[in-house]
Structure formats: structure tokens, C-alpha cells
Amino acid sequence: MSGGALGKVFKNGEVIVQQGEAGDCMYVIQQGEVEVVHQAGTEQQQLAVLGEGDFFGEMAIFDQAQRSATVRALGDVRLLTVDKTTFLRRITEDPSLALRVVQKMSHRIRELNAELARLMERLGG
Q1: I need a surface site. Which of 24, 48, 57, 124 has the fewest CB within 10 A?
Q2: Residues 3-17: pLDDT tens digits?
Q3: What is the DSSP string of 9-50?
Q4: Residues of the chain under the 50 pLDDT cut
Q5: Distance CA 16, CA 111 (A)
Q6: Are 20 and 67 contacting, i.e. CB atoms less than 8 angstroms apart?
Q7: Rounded to two decimals, what is the model's pTM?
Q8: Partners of 22 in the β-ladder
Q9: DSSP 101
């Protein structure tokens, strides 16, 4: 990981956050792509590929739970790290930011619900 004028650069394959570790910030992708993967035993499932303008790790801003997935750089990626204090200050400056985050979280929950329904249908449940 190296510092830059804006954000931090992670190299291809570098782990940005590790499933199970404590989290206290979120990340905004300024350039490049990351993959979000979930480990269950020896199985690893890619959950998403995120690109410029996307964010991840936002749940750590709202709770102190462990990271629910691992996020790795796909190629070089530049990320802006946002801690809770900075996030709350930015919401005070621009309340629409909170709405955009909630909308994205809602969209992700809908996608997860749809995937769960497909899995249940396949299992005959």
C-alpha cells in the first residue's frame, strides 16, 4: 500500500479489508476495481466487483461488527478512506450524501433478497 495525493493505492491482489477483522471506516473507489469475496470454510464466493465511484465497508460506520467479506484490489486501485467522524461531518455539509448511502445499501439488500429467493427456489424451499 502506498500513499498518494488523493487516497491510497493498492496493488493487484492486495487485500484491503479482511473478512472477520474489526472495521472502523469505509472506502470510496476513486480509480480501478475491487472484488468482494466471502469465505465459508474452504469455499470462496465472489459477491461483487465494484468500480470507480462505488463504496464498501460502510457497515463499519454504523456498527462495530467484524467485516462480513474480504475485499481485494483487481489491478491497481486508488481508495479514499472515510472514518465515522469524517462521514458524519460530510453528512452535515451535504445531507444528500446520507440518502445516497442508504439508497445503495437498500439496493444491495434487495439484490441479496433476490439471490436468497433464487437459492431457496433451487433447493425446493
Answers
A1: 124
A2: 445 789 999 999 999
A3: EE-TT-EEE-TTSB--EEEEEEEEEEEEEEEETTEEEEEEEE
A4: 1, 3-4
A5: 23
A6: yes
A7: 0.82
A8: 66
A9: H
